[in-house]
Design goal:
The protein is mainly alpha-helical. It has one domain. Helix content is about 65%, strand content about 0%. It has 13 helices and no strands.
């Protein structure tokens, strides 16, 4: 009989990233196994062992961008990971640990496979602590996916390559909104606010999107909006 310790070692070894060069069915089964056995500890190890540029890049290099089922199982695995690991650990799976690059990769997957827009929508809701879906809707995601495809600017590699921030037109409004989504889900203050008062959090997110063109690179616009909310809340408490 295999000891419990040996069983745990075998399980840990099995929680490895699938090879993008494998058959699609094998990739799907591996992500399914991973999703069913993830814990906080194994989730952190899984993130740390990631290829580093996102699984989109792995499938790109393998010539398997048509693997719709593999993308779906990958997105489902990410949704399972979100509540288990620190956001910094989650982001280490993407280019430069960049939340904007992560958002752009998810939107690129929607462009490649529009049928997965609900999967990406659910992932964004999980990342934004937006259980009611007040910040983004499926139509928003569909439109953003179309927009970022139009502003992909690399000439040396076809879309989406690694779908990093550097691959798109920085002046485009859709690109800026995608970056802002990433900014929201990597902000501890914003996520704390969403858990405390999701209605106000969603209002701040929409204000961030509306004023995206006014955003000054010299200061953190999101933090300014959160500070205004906190100031307003303090004043209301004094008045009562």
């Amino acid at each position: 009989m295999i000891s419990r310790e040996a069983q745990e070692i075998v399980k840990e070894m099995s929680l490895s990233w699938p090879s993008a060069h494998d058959d699609e069915s094998k990739i799907i089964e591996q992500f399914k196994f991973i999703r069913e056995h993830l814990t906080k500890e194994s989730g952190e190890k899984f993130c740390a062992a990631s290829p580093g540029c996102g699984f989109l890049m792995e499938l790109y290099d393998a010539g398997h961008l048509h693997y719709e089922g593999a993308f779906q199982s990958y997105l489902s695995c990410l949704r399972t990971l979100v509540p288990l690991v620190a956001r910094s650990n989650f982001l280490c799976m993407f280019v430069k640990n960049c939340s904007g690059c992560a958002a752009l990769q998810f939107l690129s997957i929607v462009y490649l496979h529009p049928i997965l827009e609900n999967e990406v929508n659910c992932l964004f809701r999980e990342l934004l602590c937006d259980s009611h879906g007040d910040i983004l809707h499926r139509n928003d995601i569909r439109q953003l996916a179309l927009t970022i495809r139009l502003v992909y600017k690399r000439q040396d590699f076809p879309f989406p390559y690694m779908a990093s921030c550097c691959d798109f037109d920085w002046e485009n409004e859709g690109f800026k909104i995608a970056k802002a989504i990433g900014e929201l889900f990597c902000s501890d203050k914003f996520l704390e606010l969403m858990k405390r008062d999701s209605t106000v959090g969603a209002q701040i997110a929409h204000e961030l999107f509306k004023t995206i063109e006014e955003k000054d690179k010299e200061y953190n616009h999101l933090q300014t909006l959160i500070a205004k909310y906190q100031e307003s809340t303090s004043e209301n408490e004094l008045d009562t």
